[in-house]
Amino acid sequence: MAETTLMSIAPLFLFLLCCATQTLGITIHSFPNGDVNGIIEAEYQKTVSLVCEVGDMASDEELVWLRNGAVVKLLDENKKGRSSVCVTPLVYEDNDAVFTCHLKTNDSDKASVTLNVTYPPQLSMSEEVQLELDSLLVLQCDMRANPPVSSIVWKLNGSIVDLLEGGFTVTNDGLISQLQVKNVKRHLHEATYQCTAVSPMYGQQTQTFHVTVTEKTVKFPVMPIIAGVVVVCATSLLAIVSRWSKITKCFK
Ligand SMILES: *[C@@H]1O[C@H](CO)[C@@H](O)[C@H](O)[C@H]1NC(C)=O
Ligand SMILES: *[C@@H]1O[C@H](CO)[C@@H](O)[C@H](O)[C@H]1NC(C)=O
Ligand SMILES: *[C@@H]1O[C@H](CO)[C@@H](O)[C@H](O)[C@H]1NC(C)=O
């Protein structure tokens, strides 16, 4: 019973598809497939291939591809009636890129797809950080990801950072998560730090920082500044002196 129902629906479905293609004229097929809104999901560095076809199979009219409104350069043999483009490897800038196809002679009938390039936050490296006592500590984690990360956590020696105890501030602007301390002390701040971002698609990603606090070194920026000031003062003094000799002449 169920089988016969399917059998009778299938030809009808094919019929609808065929008519839809003809009325639409221009269509885009993709690998991987797009969703109902023409959004094609693919991972960073993978490949998306797109094929544009004129509904009327006999047509050898020239097709044009646009990427975000800019014309894509095509080989001559890849223009007539059917045209394919391959986006590989996918880069971050390809996320949200819109590919549009239409006839060269008439752009009133066109088809578009949008790329959704997914990638985890780039948090794999381990960093050595050395800084002097009482200086400013800034640790940064790039939390950009698609889909966006759902949370980000900072840890110190394996435990969640105690903001109050260590005098830390944490800021997130959606791109970068930043942990900051104004005056580092060895007993409070020398440690292994980790930021862990949770991606709904890629799971946890962690970046590690080994922070060591060194003694202050003596710096000598003072001497050149004094020398500079002396030179400037001496020159203006000379200027006044020479002018003074002129001014005083008037009173002779
Ligand atoms: C362009 O295509 C549309 C839809 O297929 C059609 O209605 C229109 O007449 C065409 N315009 C020209 C100038 O061919
Ligand atoms: C892109 O794909 C991700 C993962 O499936 C999804 O969470 C996100 O909503 C998609 N974005 C768009 C604009 O469709
Ligand atoms: C973190 O662990 C290291 C190694 O055990 C230790 O030397 C350091 O003092 C610890 N840092 C803090 C702030 O507790």
From TrEMBL:
TM stretches of this protein: 222-242
Single Gene Ontology MF annotation: cell adhesion molecule binding
Compartment annotation: Membrane
Any Pfam family the entry gives: Ig_3
Residues of the Ig-like domain: 32-114, 121-214
Principal subcellular localisation of the protein: membrane
Residues in the signal sequence: 1-25
SMART domains: IG
GO cellular component terms listed in the entry, alphabetical order: cell-cell junction; plasma membrane
Bilayer topology: Single-pass type I membrane protein
GO biological process, one term: cell-cell adhesion
Origin superkingdom: Eukaryota
Gene3D superfamilies assigned: Immunoglobulins
Entry keywords, A to Z: Disulfide bond, Glycoprotein, Immunoglobulin domain, Membrane, Signal, Transmembrane, Transmembrane helix
PANTHER family referenced in this protein's UniProt entry, alphabetically: IRREGULAR CHIASM C-ROUGHEST PROTEIN-RELATED, NEPHRIN
Protein name (database record): (Atlantic silverside) hypothetical protein
